[in-house]
Amino acid sequence: MRYYVRKFAFYLVALWAALTLNFVIPRLMPGNPVDILLAKLQQRGGSIDPAARRSFELLLGSGGDESVVGQYFAYLGNVLRGDLGVSVSAFPAPVSEVIASSLPWTVVLVGIATLLSFVIGIALGALVGWKRGTWLDSLVPATTVLAAVPYFWLALILVAVFASALGWFPLTGGYDVVLSPGWDAEFIGSAVYHGILPALTIVVSSVGGWLLGMRNMMVSATSEDYVLTARAKGLRDSRIMIRYATRNAVLPSVAGFAISLGFVVSGSIITEQVFSYPGIGSKLLQAVQNNDYALMQGIFLVITVAVLGANLVVDLLYALIDPRTRVSG
User: Which residues pair with 86 in a beta bridge?
Assistant: First the structure.
């Protein structure tokens, strides 16, 4: 029980530190969101009086004459209420609405692609490590080369071949523009169809890392005493491979997979830009280009919470998979 209490306490402190950094860093950056918004409004004509400026300061949370300490506690209170501020680039839409509209696209695309690459890489890595020295070892350099290919270049090649030349898949977008988003079969089918190439880019570029790591751990596990003992008992090779060798060899990959799941919500900026996919990565790039500090702050907060949550879940699962961690941890 003390193990779980320590873990929860550690992650609570880490969350507080992340919230504090998320408050401080945007305020150290040059520029002022109020000035940026007013400049955009003035480009459309008209002038802004001091009262209007003060209203925008209160709306965007820039503080005006409020102390930094007061802004900090107001920020923590707003976060607890789910109020992340107002987006400058999508004014007057709240940051929470901007994130909520794009986050599902990223979670589905990057989440499924990450899960597929992990499962395929672990399965192939376990098989290659178990049958090392055979022709299966040729999978390692082949997938490693694909993992070393620049991400944007691979995406562009897939677009040029499968979308432009062959016309099998659409060039851009997350769904057919003539459709209205909804849970009907036509829209879901269109979203899946548009997401195949972006997902394929992520899977192809990341499966090699999982395969190589699992293969090396599998080679190490097959020389352990418990595997030799299982063979001496006359157990089937398939059972030894799955129940003994793979079960222990996969533990380091589980931790890496947890971190990857946490970063799913950050999206894949390059992939989303190449395919013009309406995910959180595109919104983050848009926020950077428009100096939208509130949106950047909200996206970074979501990413931080997701990474901490994923690591907490894996730490708790680790204690169930490998009870030794409860003793040593």
Answer: 94
> How far, in Å, CA of 279 to CA of 201, rounded?
15
- The Cα–Cα gap between 231 and 277 comes to 51
Residues of the chain with pLDDT under 50: 329
Greatest distance between any 2 Cα atoms in the chain? 86
Radius of gyration of the chain (CA): 24
Give the single-character DSSP code of 166. Answer: S
Give the Cα separation of 107 and 127 in Å (integer). Answer: 29
Angstrom distances, CA of residue 132 to CA of 22, 62, 124, 126, 296: 47, 60, 12, 10, 47
Burial (CB count within 10 angstroms: exposed 0-12, middle 13-18, buried 19+), residue 32: middle
- How far is residue 90 from each of residues 93, 95, 132, 171, 283, measured CA to CA in Å? 6, 8, 54, 26, 10
Each residue's pLDDT tens digit, 68-108: 777 788 778 878 887 777 777 776 778 888 888 888 888 88
pLDDT, position 130? 79
Per-residue confidence (pLDDT) for residue 262, from 0 to 100? 66
